[in-house]
Design goal:
Layout (H helix, E strand, L loop, with lengths): L2 H8 L15 H6 L15 E8 L2 E7 L9 E5 L10 H10 L3 E5 L8 E2 L7 H15 L7 E6 L1 H12 L5 E7 L3 H7 L3 H7 L3 E2 L2 H10 L6 H7 L4 E3 L14 H4 L16 H5 L42 E3 L7 H8 L2 H7 L4 E5 L7 H8 L4 E4 L7 H4 L1 H14 L17
Parallel strand pairs: 3-4, 3-6, 6-7, 7-11, 11-12
Antiparallel strand pairs: 1-2, 2-4, 2-5, 8-10, 9-10
């Protein structure tokens, strides 16, 4: 691209599409001038609580306030490596649209949840945790529960619903996870994990990497989500426990040139390109999201890190590479289990190419609702929280599980 073309693109910003690739929000434009100050959980949730199940298990949960009218509980299950804070912006959006209460959980081994055997991430163990937590929170009368799960959390949601641990599940939405494509992607998952930096010098530094690497494409979401994914190397506490940051640490990003990552967002992609603003490459994950076969293991390069060991202050909360033995169990039989659930099902994908054969046949038979949200990455609900909230709200209203909180016009998806 010539300098003239680049200049034209910089000065011809298209209309804002929240969380999309074209027309970034004002907050994203601020991020280009080092605005990576983390935000607090309390900006999105009414309360947080550490729920003690027994001597071996204490689970962190986040809840929105009770709805003005009766509505379902949206039980939100995050993907591998994330935390309950991944749902922050989605919760704000959906509680504006419908009467419901959101309940976001830090799963075993993630976030501020503390358990023995944190490395046991088998489907059965995670499903048992969720069931015990629900029974602890609602010992007398379990309200209607609608499951929403992303990636690993989507697979666990299906497994949980299939085992029928509780009887009040009214429906399920699975976000960007499909058995066939997930199983195919497992071979490259370890290479992807090795490509990530092992440490960060500060919380804003981690947020900046999250955006520039393309892990999350919505800077506002990264500011609240990323601190829930890293811990202080000295205290071993989640980074969220250090917020709010002192002013002298709040603007501690790193120059873009210090990150070299195969999935980083180029300036051309940020501003739009000849493809209508769509990215020229996309990530390969164990989720079934949009992939690019040209990216093999030889393309992965670990981002550069500070030479000073004292600057390696934060690292990942969970070492996902150690969970490899459970990956096959998460996804095996997932499509059939999803189709055979006796509650309304919805599937949200980042790419139409994500469907496997089983789900393709099921979709043609009208056995579930599907929606593809373009111009977003694997973390669909973080990149485009408003659109995801609208799609799920429409599904809930259409099935008479919830009432609109105000005037809401939703057009049924075409696929």
């Amino acid at each position: 691209m010539s300098n003239l073309q680049r200049s034209i693109l910089k000065n011809r910003l298209p209309p804002t599409i929240p969380g999309g690739r074209i027309g970034r929000s004002d907050s994203f434009k601020k991020s280009r001038i080092r605005d990576f100050k983390p935000t607090l959980w309390s900006d999105f949730f009414a309360e947080k609580e550490d729920v003690i199940l027994d001597k071996k298990r204490t689970f962190r949960i986040y809840r929105t306030k009770q709805p003005q009218k009766p509505g379902p509980i949206l039980l939100l299950l995050h993907g591998g490596g994330y935390s309950g804070l991944t749902w922050s912006h989605f919760c704000v959006e959906i509680t504006r649209i419908i009467h419901c209460q959101c309940l976001a959980i830090d799963l075993r081994g993630h976030g501020d949840t503390k358990t023995e055997q944190e490395d046991d991430l088998s489907s059965d163990t995670l499903a048992e945790d969720i069931g015990d937590l629900v029974l602890k929170l609602y010992p007398d009368d379990i309200p209607p529960i609608y499951l929403v799960g992303h990636s690993m959390g989507g697979a666990i949601a299906v497994h949980f619903a299939h085992k029928a641990i509780i009887s009040s599940i009214i429906g399920i939405t699975v976000i960007d996870v499909v058995e066939g494509t997930a199983m195919e992607a497992l071979a490259s998952m370890q290479s992807f994990l090795r490509s990530r930096p092992t440490h960060f010098k500060s919380i804003p530094n981690a947020i900046e990497w999250c955006i520039r690497s393309g892990q999350i494409r919505n800077v506002d979401s990264a500011k609240v989500s990323m601190p829930g994914q890293i811990i202080n190397c000295t205290t071993k506490l989640l980074a969220t426990n250090e917020l709010p940051l002192p002013e002298d640490e709040a603007d501690d990003g790193t120059s873009p040139s210090s990150f070299t990552h195969p999935f980083s967002i180029s300036e051309d992609e940020e501003m739009g390109n000849d493809n209508g603003g769509a990215p020229t490459t996309s990530t390969t994950t164990a989720s079934g999201s949009e992939n690019d076969s040209s990216l093999d293991s030889s393309d992965f390069k670990k981002p550069s890190l500070p030479n000073d060991e004292s600057q390696k202050r934060y690292t990942w909360r969970i070492d996902l590479s150690k969970s490899e033995k459970y990956w096959v169990g998460w996804f095996t039989g997932l499509s059939e289990k999803f189709l055979n659930l006796r509650v309304p099902q919805q599937l949200l994908l980042a790419s139409i190419d994500g469907l496997d054969k089983t789900l393709t046949v099921g979709q043609m038979q009208g056995r579930f609702q599907m929606q593809v949200l373009a111009r977003c990455g694997h973390a669909v609900h973080e990149d485009r929280p408003h659109e995801v909230a609208e799609v799920i709200s429409g599904h809930l209203i259409r099935n008479r599980f919830a009432e609109a909180a105000g005037e809401f016009h939703f057009h049924l998806p075409a696929c």
